[in-house]
Amino acid sequence: MSTPAGSFSTRRAALLAQLAPGSVAVLATAREAVRNGDAEYPYRHDSSFYYLTGFTEPEATLVLVAARGDRPAQSILFCREKNPEREIWEGLRHGPEAAREAFGFDAAHPAAALDEKLAELLADAPALYCRLARDEGGDAQVRRWFDAVRARSRSGIVAPPVLRDLVPLVDEMRVVKDAGEQALMLRAGQISGAAHVRAMRAARPGMFEYELEAELLYEFRRNGAQFPAYTSIVASGANSCILHYSSNDRRTQDGDLVLIDAGCELDGYAADITRTWPVNGRFSAPQRELYELVLAAQAAAFDAIRPGNAFHAAHDAAVKVLAQGMLDCGLLDRNTAGSLDDVIANKAYTAFYMHGTSHWLGMDVHDVGAYRDTAHADKPSRPLVEGMVMTVEPGIYVRPAPDVPERYWNIGIRIEDDVVVAAGGPTVLTGAAPKTVAEIEHLMGETR
């Protein structure tokens, strides 16, 4: 389901159209990273670089030169040269010429030629767009380019007088997903949903959390996903109240809830699903009560996701339902917390719900893009538009405390789905994972 090469060319053209005439933009992919000794982490390309190129090899840089007068725009790739000896050890390298043809660049050069070529391209350019203050190595490279251009000043050559951050331009392009991206994310959601189903079916009291994690990872890879999109959270019992729990080494016990937050990455795009369910297949009465509350909060958040509504509207809707439920069930004492309006105004609900309801989703799990309305300073939350993809993940987390009803202690619940903003209401990408009490108990009952 990989993205057609033409899509990357279209994105490069759209970015070039935003640059000042004659200016140059530079974007490098991620570096390889050593894990320990001489072993490296599995390589994963930079998301924005891939978004514009489709190229997944390390040691690569994209250079864009905006049109100016009768000089047309250019997209140039710098990448590793062919090297038959290294390819025996590391696998295929496209090399510049094959990469140019396969990915639709106007030109391609060896990575070693980058500094020399940039010194030429930046001569008399009105601006350089790049990642500003990313790391010392990148900043030093930019200084080298400028020094090389300035060394020619006696010939009348000048370095770009303007240095601009490229990141906000690319980030904003990535916020709205095209049809191809949405299709990839739907498939990632389907694979991830199947993995959650597999874990539910395999679950038995006494299993270790990592055994359930293994079921997830098997299903991801079996269906062609290249990686987990993030470190899977498999949290049982009291661990379900730890938001970013990742040890996954506890033995589950009869009566535990298991909260699994896990999704795969497919062709560069992430899924992000959370489901919470009883390891023995049956919700207790207190577990069911809080679960139904979180599910109702998610439904309210879905109703608030419409083009034109503020991004924050989904969170506000979920909070209203959760806060009322906390008052109704006694998690919050009306005598001290006050009315629903008081609970919301004073943020008393954050004792049991302390995170946001949504974030952008795409190539990165917490995807790029502004959440504020940058065009209107008086509006703290940007309006939604069709094609945005976001998570919807209300939750409730009850730790033991003297003023908290004991029947709810150590119950942590989160329900998370991925949705595309659409005119008729959000399109759910992760519906393959069951989430109602009846669906979960039926599914888990089938294997018992």
Automatic annotation (TrEMBL):
Coiled-coil residue windows: none
Domain of life: Bacteria
Protein family: Belongs to the peptidase M24B family.
BP terms from Gene Ontology: proteolysis
The enzyme's E.C. designation: 3.4.11.9
NCBIfam families named among the record's database cross-references: PRK10879.1 (NF008131)
Group of enzyme by EC: hydrolase
Organism: Pseudoduganella lurida
Gene3D superfamilies: Creatinase/methionine aminopeptidase superfamily, Creatinase/prolidase N-terminal domain
Pfam families per UniProt: AMP_N, Peptidase_M24
Cofactor(s) needed for function: Mn(2+)
Keywords in alphabetical order: Aminopeptidase, Hydrolase, Manganese, Metal-binding, Metalloprotease, Protease
Catalytic activity: Release of any N-terminal amino acid, including proline, that is linked to proline, even from a dipeptide or tripeptide
One term under GO cellular component: cytosol
Residues covered by the Aminopeptidase P N-terminal domain: 3-139
GO molecular function: manganese ion binding; metalloaminopeptidase activity
Protein name in the entry: Xaa-Pro aminopeptidase
